[in-house]
Amino acid sequence: SASLVLFDVGTLTLTQYILLDPILLFFMLASFVGICKFRSYTLYEFSVNWWFWLIFTGITMACCVCVKFVGLFQVTFIGLMTIADLWFILGKLSKPISYTVKHFIARFVCLIILPLLVYVGFFYIHLFILNKSGNGDGFYSSAFQSKLQGNSLHNASMPKDVSFGAIITLKNHRTGGGYLHSHWHLYPENVGAKQQQITTYAHKDENNRWLVKFYNDDEKISINDTVRFLKHGDMIRLEHVPTRRNLHSHREPAPITRKHYQVTGYGENGTGDYNDVWKVFVDGGSDGNIVSAVTSKIKLVHVLQHCVLTTSNKQLPKWAFEQHEVTCSPNLRDTNSYWNVEDNINPKLPNVSFEVYSPNFFARFIESHAVMFQGNAGLKPKEGEVTSKPWQWPINYKV
Q1: pTM over 0.85
Q2: Would residue 253 count as lying in a domain?
Q3: What is the pLDDT of residue 3?
Q4: In a domain, 138, yes or no
Q5: Residue 114: pLDDT above 60?
């Protein structure tokens, strides 16, 4: 059997690629060997070898999950074997109940507590070593990014509160949410109004920047003006800095989520119409509460259409570079409608350090898993990509 595994064409092929499957296969086989060896010591319960193979099984089982979440199937398999063993132990009526309890505690510690500690320990090392900024930063919350060296939020100093005249970036507050984004490209024909596209984008670039303006065009922001902070209940316009078009919505249906309204970039040189006006609401806030960078969760409600700026988390076609759809939802309780200000640039205000908002290890541990689960759920074939069904794999069926 060892020769079959060693010379199996599939296994040999996998080892030629930088894939996790050979490593996963190693730990799966190791944990299987461990549980088999452990069960072979039934007559030598609680001996040194008995404990060794039980601990070995727990560690290798944890390593399966550390490599890939598919390793949970191995955990299930070993768990079922353990339940069967405990059932037979419970059936030994000649033994006292303390005998069963000792077996249960031994397995609970070695096959549940120990693997959890190993798994969390590996993630602690993972997050400690991988502490540099990269292209995937935008998938994580602003607070998480503040722990990444090289990220604009690491040891960041910026104004604590948001004011009119500030240049900001808005990040969707849901797990893995992107930045409110626009670019010069327009929506194509038959996709609502042929105006500038508004999307969410997971990566940082200049096209994520917005200028906070007064809702009334008669009020202009001057360098000499005193700073006026953005507060709960204020009405604003958001001007896209690179293109100078305002964030806008109207009663045209959204590109994919047809029950929502389309969100576009509209106007010239910052001048648009009253469909550019949004009202700011701070989550849990009241009149007079100032919007703070990073920490405040805000909603932007369209004044005329009475809808809330949100993202559907649906991927747009290639004409929008497969970025994610932004809409205006008539459901003001939309769970994806919360945003937070990440970058906050205003030379009139003093900068403060955001180190105090850095999350602890367990907060980052939970968030990283939420992002991974969401990323796995979002793995879908791209437009025009050849796909196959599972039943086609064993027979190598090709369309």
Answers
A1: no
A2: yes
A3: 72
A4: no
A5: yes
